[in-house]
């Protein structure tokens, strides 16, 4: 990515260059301009994704530059950096699509937080623009959501309704009751969190565009989203002579796009859609995940008949470990289970589902026995994947250990800990020390707990992160101090833990909706 800094003061440009964490956000080229006129030339030549601009500049000022960017339909994310907290400037920044408006002197945290949001927004919008361009003419003419629902409605039925058959024939030129079809399933769960940052709709939109562009190019079939499943794409092929070539091409394109190799489960060819679909489901559920790392395209012939491991068979051993409160004893039990899983069973999605369901049953029963509220957040470890989409047996074991470790900790705390709840003590500690910065590591060291455990348990207890909770305490204290007309705003800022008055004002306004001065006036008028 590229960025440009536009300001007539060199020390401001140098400051932004120094304070910005450019490499962290993937920005490797940064240009400089001393006014808007010079900037226009550089912007047209280099097309930077991020633009920082001052408002008050010679020749062509910030307002004129923003208007030019708007009229030229340049998609860069523009961040105004100004020494003037002026409504006229802000209004124009908003009018011409500025991404944000930050004030000088520039706080590093504010700068980098804004930069992070701007780069993420630009990437997301760029991805959507690119995906839209890649969509084929045919798929642009139909309504994807309509076809998703129609095809989802027929893959589980023994016969295809006549009206659905006619619509498919009219649109795709194929009579599904007269040809042998093959269904392949593709789970996008791994790319939703990793590449698309949890945006499920964007993940479906992009992946389906890639699949359909390849499949529909030779009128081999159609790809659609199973609306009854959270993460399933169905590849329906009615011309399956070269199906594995097509699937490999889809797999390669997805990998080129997001660097993730996704497993494809191929069902047995059949003239009955529901038969090939059920076969594909069994392929997805029962294939050896570890072995699938090698080829990523598995067929119904790869289904294993290995017996399933049931952790309920180890209930007595697990109970003793839970009652002992010993992490070491629990790990010994888990190691025996893992050893058995590797030596006499295979790891499949079906096996993982059985494990997860039985663990949830175990956990629910033990929480009930110890009178622990089931609504309290508990760790659900399901991140079993490497960055390239490969299954990691080590991550699977680590996630399962984390679940049991948290369960044993919860039970042991209820049974043996008589003193005040540690999370409540942390909350009290925050209230007594709100006037200074409190690193999470300091809290972890003070209360002999891990940072991850503190963050998770505090959020579960108070429905807020520690950072947000501390901010709320500071804001409430600031409100009390603002009722004293003799205290200056900067004095209040220092008293509640903010060394910079302007940053304090920004945080206060974001939380309250008024600046500190406005809030004080409103209180005096009551």
From TrEMBL:
Modification 4-aspartylphosphate occurs at: 54
A Pfam family annotated for this UniProt entry: HTH_18
Species of provenance: Metabacillus bambusae
InterPro entries membership: CheY-like_superfamily (IPR011006), Homeodomain-like_sf (IPR009057), HptR (IPR051552), HTH_AraC (IPR018060), HTH_AraC-typ_CS (IPR018062), Sig_transdc_resp-reg_receiver (IPR001789), Tscrpt_reg_AraC-type_HTH (IPR020449)
Statement: the UniProt record of this protein carries the keyword Iron: no
Boundaries of every Response regulatory domain copy: 2-119
Keywords: Cytoplasm, DNA-binding, Phosphoprotein, Transcription, Transcription regulation, Two-component regulatory system
This protein's name: Response regulator
Keyword presence, Cytoplasm: yes
Record-annotated HTH araC/xylS-type domain positions: 424-522
Subcellular location(s) of the protein: Cytoplasm
